[in-house]
Amino acid sequence: MQLRRGDVLDGAMAILDEYGLGDLTMRKLASSLGVQPGALYWHFPNKQTLLGAMADRILDGADEPSTSESWDDAIAELAHRFRGALLAHRDGAELVASTYASRLTTSRARDAFVATAERAGLSRAYAELTGYALLHYVLGHTVDEQSRAQLAELGALTHAPLSPDVATAQPAGADADLLDGDPAVRFEFGLRLLIDGVRARLASRATS
Amino acid sequence: MQLRRGDVLDGAMAILDEYGLGDLTMRKLASSLGVQPGALYWHFPNKQTLLGAMADRILDGADEPSTSESWDDAIAELAHRFRGALLAHRDGAELVASTYASRLTTSRARDAFVATAERAGLSRAYAELTGYALLHYVLGHTVDEQSRAQLAELGALTHAPLSPDVATAQPAGADADLLDGDPAVRFEFGLRLLIDGVRARLASRATS
DNA sequence: ACCTGAACACCGTTCAAGT
DNA sequence: ACCTGAACACCGTTCAAGT
Known about the structure:
2 copies of one chain form a homodimer. By secondary structure, chain A is mainly α. Chain A has helices spanning 5-19, 26-32, 40-43, 47-59, 71-87, 92-101, 108-120, 124-159, 183-207. The first copy, chain A, is elongated, with a radius of gyration of 20 Å. Chain A starts with a helix and ends with a helix. The interface between A and B is large, with 42 and 42 residues. Chain A binds a DNA duplex through helix 3.
């Protein structure tokens, strides 16, 4: 049975979910597929392209048109779907963020934001900028949220059973405030900030 | 003359500015300092820590209290200073963004945002969330802006003299719109969105 | 068309031993 | 205290040669 492009992608996603982005190497992927490293290069020209395809798969479906008819709900729904898609895979946010920078993933999520902002009544140009701001916020927040969660998970496993006296020392320390409150609440707050900003923009347009 | 921690940091910054983050390896750094790779590990426990120190240096001074007395100008000034600091070094935004995720840089820039948001009249908790939203936006925008600029620079050098017939084909294509307009204008737009969002929050607090 | 074998040119990090 | 020499355990990528 021959290896197909989709099998390589599936294998890569499996390693990502189980071991994380740091352990996703072409050599590990090859051996998990029972193949020599060089074989992968028949299906993907290089690792970057493979990562781009993975990012596309992670975001698949997140850009479908919203069912809400009010523009603010539509933006919120999109943002939540986007965040959900990133959180559904280990290191998903980091992977997508880094492939966005190298422009090797499609920009359908951004396009969906732009389209919704345009539907709200913004000009094409403003909608585009709004789409970028939303994208950057969602990506930035989720990368942060996910790495924080993974650090906490690691910390819980590391120093909880190891030394009881240190267990409650640092983590609950300086910046505990609401940073380890519900991340969904934190996400919602910044999202509302941006949506309110759009509303203000629409209002000032209407009066001018 | 012995190598000091500061010399290692200086050498690393020099390589960053001249060759970029991808070419900043411990081995290249060592040879540029006329020393064996192992020597670096007397001054820094590992590469991550060195990158964290570089991020701190890049952000140095960007968090000084604003001179503006209105809270919105203060936020804007801070955001612009932050962006400027990131753009002042090759791959500066990417470096800071990735060290932020691994929590190996100080969070003075974020703290400055939080303090200003608190001065605006938000509760500590809301100010904290606002600080994060601002930080994520600035970081996300600037990473994008910088990588875009570097791609364009590379593209101009690459396919302008190489093949005249392809020169104007793809780059000026689909998403030209205002994405290659003044990046400072693009930055300003999203920033205003967030500031207007904060204003709306303050207003709804006042009336409730 | 698809893969193996084997190499090329690298990495970050460690650590005995030197001065 | 600070560094060398030399190794360990890896990387991504290429490419002739096989089937």
